[in-house]
């Protein structure tokens, strides 16, 4: 799927942001719908599903986190990009906990937002028909690319799209150190630069979900990047 066929729903209570995003996305070829709050967002998705959602965290009534939680509880896996004025790690983690696939802090550059949308749409696209790849295993970690499910031993781990894609990249390159630029390019299709905390947040969140008091899996190679390499 690409911008010429994708429908994006923008939910933000700031009219100026809604209108500017609508114009910018339409120029890129997206079909765009806009709403001003979470209640309208849920009603819009229920009546006419979109291919991708852009949700502001802070909205009156039902906020962006609430919208994400409701949709994920309904097993709606539509990719969600969360917009937030809060840039601290706990606030970003709250968005991931709610089921968002990515987040972007305000104010943001339009090119970065467009890059993230493209990456989300690529990851949401169905894989080639006829592929019968089995689960990938590294130690006690098992990842099924077709079903997009992950287990640590007998425990299934729930991951968002971005978390799953990041873990799959690490699993397929187990034992190899991947630098930050490579990971950004493969997962987001855009290098956010050395000052970005985006990757570090996702790595820490993956660790929290995967390790749960168990043996560390994802290793940090300082000044370089990350590798999946169980210790011991």
TrEMBL record:
DNA-binding region boundaries: 133-230
Subcellular location: Cytoplasm
Sites of 4-aspartylphosphate modification: 56
Domain OmpR/PhoB-type: 133-230
Pfam families assigned to the protein according to its UniProt record, in alphabetical order: Response_reg (PF00072), Trans_reg_C (PF00486)
Cited PROSITE patterns: OMPR_PHOB, RESPONSE_REGULATORY
SUPFAM superfamilies the UniProt entry points to: C-terminal effector domain of the bipartite response regulators (SSF46894), CheY-like (SSF52172)
Record's keyword terms, sorted: DNA-binding, Phosphoprotein, Transcription, Transcription regulation, Two-component regulatory system
Domain Response regulatory, chain residue ranges per copy: 7-121
Matches recorded under Gene3D superfamilies: 3.40.50.2300, 6.10.250.690, Winged helix-like DNA-binding domain superfamily/Winged helix DNA-binding domain
UniProt keyword DNA-binding, yes or no: yes
PANTHER family: REGULATOR OF RPOS
Protein name, per record: Response regulator transcription factor
Naturally occurring in which organism (per UniProt): Nocardiopsis lambiniae
Lineage: Bacteria, Bacillati, Actinomycetota, Actinomycetes, Streptosporangiales
